[in-house]
Amino acid sequence: QVAQAIAAQLEAVGVTVDFEVREYGAYVGDLFAGNAPDLFLLGWGNAVFDADFILYPLTRTDGLLSFYTNPELDLLLDEGSTSVDVSTRQQAYTEATALLQDEAPFIYLYKQQDAYGISERLTWTPRADEFLWLYSASLAE
Question: Would you say 56 and 81 are in contact if contact means Cβ atoms under 8 Å apart?
């Protein structure tokens, strides 16, 4: 639905869109192989809560899903990913995200919000990373 809305908005301003919904495995396989269309929709979570988990594969020149090149960014990401010093990593990733914000190699759309409905009989707190971890869930007494 998000992709359809974007396609409609682009069409409304005169951009011709060849909208295609594909089977997820084939779609991601093509992306991983470097065969991305000119415009595509991608969501990426961060289960490990580490900036490197998102920035390196999506923005570094040789990243798994990167279609962007910036030598300055590559140096910052290398510094962040190879340092064990927390402040060094934080500084590198802060500079990297500022650079990405200035250059805007992507169209950042939104941060997905999840809604959960649970029974009053269940004690459970959703995680911030959208991972459904139910080992901590229990029946209320």
Answer: yes
Which residues, 6+ apart, have CB-to-CB distance to 110 below 8 Å? Answer: none
Per the structure block, which two tokens stand in for 52? 């490197």
Residue 6 has pLDDT above 90, yes or no: yes
| pTM more than 0.90 | no
Alpha carbons 92 and 136: distance in angstroms, whole number: 35
Q: Hey, what are 46's tokens?
A: 């961060």
Query: Tokens in use for 6?
Result: 């974007």
Q: Specify the residue for token string 């590198």.
A: 92
User: What is the C-alpha separation between 109 and 3, in angstroms, rounded?
Assistant: 11
> What phi and psi, each to the nearest 5 degrees, are found at residue 32?
-65, -30
Number of H helices, E strands in the chain: 5, 2
